[in-house]
Structure prediction request, 115 residues.
Amino acid sequence: MGRRKGGKQVRLGGRPPDMRKLAQELEAEMLKAQEALGAETVEVSAGGGAVTVVMTGHQKLRSVKIDPEVLDPDDVEMLEDLIVAAVNEAVERSQQLAAERLGRLTGGLGLPGLM
Prediction:
């Protein structure tokens, strides 16, 4: 790699990389990946397909579908529970999708503020 000379790190074999340029390129790639996440979706069902939700990679709920057969006016609580379960699972999967897409760019660096 390098050798110390007079208290300074000397890079052998060429010029040091332009860290500012590399950081700008990484930032541009991150922005593209984050934008693309808005177009990607995850679909999750709960209750054996009774409730299905679709969510974007930005954790925006796109749609909720409810099987009419589960509409029971005497058991609204069950339907509410199914919706909550489906939405929570969709959020989790959406976050996993974002972490996967953005993690490819950061190489698992664990940078603060990034998924």
DSSP finds two helices and five strands in the chain. Residues 76-106 form the longest helix (31 residues). The domain at 41-107 is CATH 3.30.1310.10 (Ybab; Chain: A;). The helical segments are 19-37, 76-106.
